[in-house]
Design goal:
The chain is an alpha/beta fold. The two termini are 36 Å apart. The strands form five sheets. Strands 2-1-15 form a three-stranded mixed β-sheet. Strands 3-4-5 form a three-stranded mixed β-sheet. A three-stranded mixed β-sheet has the order 6-7-8, sandwiched between helices. Helix content is 33%, strand content 17%. The chain has a domain at 2-65 and 100-255 and 360-439: Succinylarginine dihydrolase (L-arginine/glycine Amidinotransferase, Chain A), CATH 3.75.10.20. The longest helix is centred in the first third of the chain and has 17 residues, at 36-52. Bound molecules: N~2~-(3-carboxypropanoyl)-L-arginine. N~2~-(3-carboxypropanoyl)-L-arginine binds next to loops. Residues 16-20, 23, 26, 100, 102, 105, 107-108, 133, 136, 175, 247, 249-250, 358-360, 364 line the site of N~2~-(3-carboxypropanoyl)-L-arginine.
């Protein structure tokens, strides 16, 4: 089995609109002028680095934005140009919501269970409904369509319908899911921030929204066909969410038998670790960050836990970390421990500031899918990356993406045209067929 990374390709309308309350970077960079081209190239640069390390890499396409069908569904009518102009009226917020390139953060695309763990021996994928944030909830239908093209072979894969929309079953996908494995056992930790009904223990976060419900996590575990014995739902720390840790992967990351964990990632972390050690044995290796050594504000600002902990082709482990975490002294000191303690051979600091400024680090940009050789050979479309395909994608970005994009530019009908022609070319390049609403 190999752990594949399916990275989201940043879309041509990448911008900073401050759409996510509780995501500190998103709020802080509201209104900043974006460079969609630089953002997309940064993401492709990360994919290149992973490939150089021998990590299997694939890509998922951006979504159609601005999404005119959503505007029409809200009663805005007329020609495309008229609909756009109407959405831009007033404070223009509606247009910003339907123009977000947020599908790039594929850690929120779905939750995945590998065939080695599921009751029917298939890989299960549950697209996330992302009900907590309107702009993200628009992603679920296309994500489902894309995943069904890529994971098309029903004998090997099962791509579910997203959970029903609405706040009760708000699901944020793999960003709240951590799979750990040792010789002794396998655990799927499902992080959640609030209860849909009944009382959330400790009352939950007070300042920022908890996005995922416990009920959604339990439904996800059932649909993914995981035996109950492998499932461990656990509450995210309310203090962590209130400090900007809106997803588990902002304050923790796990890979195989290694777990990087901040004190404020989960409630009752001591009890969590006791439970994990019982199920996984002494092989489990936890690199713990106490709040006193690495204050949560620094962890949220620099995102050391939102790194990718990966095993390279030669079996050595590597950490792909955002360069912000190299600049922050206590985050950098924490990460250095991984090298000193032999957890990783090297740390690769990458500049992903375009994504980081929206609260998305390296780990947000990828969906992990554990696949056997036979399963990866059965993938549909041409989304797996080779050096040649990566070069084609870079040339595609250079050709179609703007250098600069301000919020006012979102109302430009030319941007809509450019985006459609870019995406039309991309579906050809990635062998995805007619995918987008404008192509159907
Ligand atoms: O959902 N940001 C995304 C960032 C997602 C990060 N993902 C993980 N932690 N896995 C979000 O908050 C901001 C868009 C804006 O403000 O323009 C945004 O949607």
């Amino acid at each position: 089995m190999a752990e594949w990374n399916f990275d989201g390709l940043t879309g041509p309308t990448h911008h900073y609109a401050g759409l996510s309350p509780g995501n500190v970077a998103s709020e802080r960079h509201r209104g900043q002028v974006a460079s969609p081209r630089a953002a997309a190239l940064q993401g492709l640069g990360k994919m290149r680095r992973l490939m150089e390390l021998g990590v299997p890499q694939a890509v998922l396409p951006p979504h159609e934005r601005p999404h005119l069908p959503s505007l029409r569904a809200l009663g805005l009518c007329g020609t495309d140009a008229e609909v756009l102009a109407r959405a831009a009226q007033g404070d223009g917020h509606l247009l910003r919501l339907v123009s977000s390139a947020s599908a790039m953060w594929t850690a929120n695309a779905a939750t995945v269970a590998p065939s080695s763990d599921t009751l029917d021996g298939r890989v299960h994928l549950l697209p996330a409904n992302l009900s907590a944030m309107f702009h993200r909830s628009l992603e679920a239908p296309l994500t489902t369509r894309v995943l069904r093209r890529v994971f098309a072979d029903e004998a090997r894969y099962c791509v579910h319908e997203p959970l029903p929309p609405g706040s009760h079953f708000a699901d944020e996908g793999a960003a709240n899911h951590t799979r750990l494995v040792t010789e002794q056992g396998t655990v799927h930790v499902f992080g959640w921030g609030r209860r849909a009904w009944g009382t959330t223990p400790g009352a939950g976060p007070q300042r920022y929204p908890a996005r995922q419900t416990e009920e959604a996590s339990l439904a996800a575990a059932r649909l993914l066909a995981l035996p109950e014995a492998l499932v461990l739902p656990w509450q995210q720390a309310a203090r962590g969410i209130d400090a900007g840790g809106f997803h588990t992967d902002v304050l923790a990351v796990g890979h195989r038998r290694w777990l990087l964990l901040h004190e404020l990632a989960f409630e009752a972390p001591d009890a969590l670790l006791t439970e994990l050690r019982q199920r996984l044995g002494a092989e489990l290796e936890v690199v713990w960050a106490a709040e006193s050594a690495l204050p949560v504000a620094e962890a949220v600002a620099a995102y050391p836990f939102n790194s990718q902990l990966v095993s390279g082709g030669d079996g050595t482990r590597h950490l792909i970390a955002p360069s912000e975490s190299q600049q922050a002294p206590r985050a950098a000191a924490y990460l250095q421990r991984l090298v000193d303690e032999g957890v990783v051979a090297a740390i690769h600091y990458l500049d992903l500031n375009a994504s980081m400024n929206n609260g998305g680090g390296p780990a947000c940009l990828r969906l992990r899918v554990e696949l056997s050789d036979a399963e990866s050979a059965a993938l549909g479309a041409d989304v797996t990356l080779t050096p040649a395909r990566l070069a084609q994608l870079e040339a595609w970005v250079e050709r179609h993406y703007r250098e600069r994009l301000s919020l006012a530019d979102l109302a430009d009908p030319l941007l809509l045209e450019e985006t459609r022609s870019a995406l039309d070319a991309l579906t050809g390049l990635l062998g995805l067929g007619s995918l987008y609403d404008f192509q159907r």
